[in-house]
Amino acid sequence: MFVLRHGNEANARHHTDNKLNHEGDAKDIGIIVPEGSSSFCVSIISNSPDRMEVSLTSPVGERIERVPERPGTSFETHLEKSEGVVKIDYFYLLAGIGSKIARVVLIDPEPGVWTITMHGELIIYGNYHAWLPITGLISPGVEFVNSRPNFTIVSPAVSTGNITSGAYNNVTNTLYDASSWGPTRILMDKPDLASPGVNVTGVYPDNRTGEMTGTSVASSILTGACALMLQWGIVEKNHIELNTYTIRAFLIRGCTRETHIPYPSNQWGYGRLNLLNTFNLLRP
Q: What is the pLDDT of residue 95?
């Protein structure tokens, strides 16, 4: 079975989305680039039946006119007013979910606000999402001007057949502010639940202990809970048919839920992990 952390991107400002309402419509995506930032890419995903074309404006006003969207298109240019390079590619990569990617790469980018403009050439759905690389894979401070914390769960937690956990502070019962928000881009409810993930005491190398925070910590605690369920079900022969799906269902059933929060929640999933309650509900 697979237990996955779902990321610490909610407050990183690395996601935005919008909708082109009709052919000829245009919407801007602003990106803040601090001084000294390294090269990076922006991935813009939309539905394959739509045709959306990209243009770009640099912080000093240098403009790259819209690049026609055709399968396999690859455009590259050296900017005249700065030493940077811009690449724009279109890919029809996402088999099975009917999507395509427009990828904009900024090499040695000029500091300031860059503007990507999405142009509606043929609009059926009109929705698009844009992501920057996750924290640690991009220079600090590179972020969208108008970001959204939704749709920030990272791969592979966006896939099916797993159990994913957000992180919360079990002292204050508040969500960890960086814990990524769902849903997934195909509108699958994620996370499944939230586990303790703030200032959790754990083991470091060289037999040291210390406090750790994040969804990796939360998913480790969830993994331990799943291991105890496997021991109860398979090793002790109480429920030898246990698998990822049944354990997920049992854990969700036992979650602690608040009356003022509608579930499933994009932040909390189906509630806070409560393994004791899960086992109590499994008693005859």
A: 55
